Amino acid sequence: MRSQNRLVAIAFGLFTLMFCTTVFAAVPGRLDRRVLARLTGKSEAIRQQATMEIQQSARNTFRYLPELIEAAKLNCKQLESELKVDEGELPAMPPISITGQLYLIGSTQREDAGECLIELLSNKHSGISMLAADVLGKNKFSNAIEAIANLKSDPAFDLTYGYRFNLVRSLAQMEDPLAIEILTDWRHDFDGQLRHEIDRLLDEVEESDFGEDLDRYHAWKESMTKPATRLSEQKSESTEPAKKTSIVLQPSSGSSESLDRLRFSKKRQYYGMELYAKRLMFIIDHSGSMEEYSAGMTRLQRAKVELIRAITDLDPDTEFAIMFYETVVRTWREDLVAASEENKLEAIKFIKRLSFGDKTNTYTALRNSIEFSDDLEAVYLLTDGQPTVGPIIAPTKIVQDILHRNRFRHVNFNTIGVSVSGPTETFLKTLASESGGEFRALH
Fold first, then answer.
1. What domain range includes position 9?
2. Which residue, 364, 210, 432, is CA-closest to 440?
3. Is residue 229 one of the residues assigned to a domain?
4. Three-class SS string for 189-230?
């Protein structure tokens, strides 16, 4: 009898302990100070470890959500306080620990998680606001749509293509009528690659995306048939007389007869890939293997012919750059240049003089392209072989590293493989597909 009473007492005690632990863990303000200290510590390694331990189970994520929210606020506030005022430059993306914490918070899809992320949209560190917008979009916090759209007035929006792309993607991921309407309105303010991406998204919109609100859907459909003037043109009209050559017909994807198809100009292409970007870079491998002959011409000679054709056909309002690599990586100019007739001729003269080099430093070329210009939208890489020199040589590791660095730059990588196969072909295909680009195989 005594033993039974003892067992009952022990069981009751355990139940009471578990109940109290659960209740107190859920009470706001009662934070686990040990966990919070690790999540906000000075050591990035410790912050990463603490975040990964919580990430191991959904139960842990919900249990330590208050600590995660508090840690995210403190860490992001610290980053904001460390900002250096430097016009024309954006801060580096937040460390992995903070990135992990924000994505963990968003994964709970709880109201307090959404409130925290919306609050972080106003952080002066552009990397934090980009992260918060991305997490809100991925987890479809539709109450954040207007707050995300308001970031269009942030100075970073005009400074970098990656920031603009990130906001567009965040809204697109919401799959919400309001987000669709905002993107429809925004599309007239963009050109190049981003305009193409928005038009492609809007072309896929269906009645079901508006739920049961068919009147709203038909009103949106009607708005798609009305061409509008770009924001940049509206500004120019208010400050100076409009130039006849600056008038551009905008596409109207919902129309049965799109104005975008009424162009008396041929499509700009490079190896069969349409050039949507208005700020793009061509990267040419001129290593020793490009000296191999095929049908009376070397691989490099063939590459030159195609590149010269593409540059010749560029629209005057396009900006371009040329990077060429072997063991050493170099660029034709230090920045993007307008596709004026003068610049095109200079570029063609340079291309014709390009000679053969030595080894193949693909990684450095790709990394340098990401860091080349904040306005760069698309890269076209041509190579005929496996990387043989550079900080990273293994194709799989190059892809991992470049995609990580491109996470919030959103450069569109298009790849052309000359007589490639096996790991090299897989490498080029993966880099293109994972960044939204295309792959072409040449034989």
1. 2-82+94-182
2. 432
3. no
4. HCCHHHHHHHHHHHHCCCHHHHCCCHHHHHHHHHHCCCCCCC
Q: State whether the Cα torsion 102-108-112-117 is positive or negative.
A: positive
CB 96 within 8 Å of CB 44: yes
Task: Tell me the per-residue pLDDT of 414-436, one tens digit each, with 9 for 90 and over.
Answer: 999 999 989 999 999 999 999 99
For residue 230, being part of any structural domain is answered with: no
φ, ψ for residue 140 (rounded to 5)?
55, 50
Domain termination site, one of 154, 182, 210: 182
Angular region, 272: left φ>0, alpha ψ -120 to 50, beta rest: left
Residues 293 and 171 in one domain: no
Q: In which residue are the tokens 């975008």 written?
A: 260
What is the pTM (predicted TM-score) of this model? Answer: 0.81
pLDDT tens for each residue of 277-299:
999 999 999 999 999 987 789 99
246 inside domain: no
Last-in-domain residue among 127, 155, 182: 182
Phi, psi of 226 (to 5 degrees): -100, 110
Q: At what angle do helices 395-405 and 422-434 cross, to 10 degrees?
A: 10
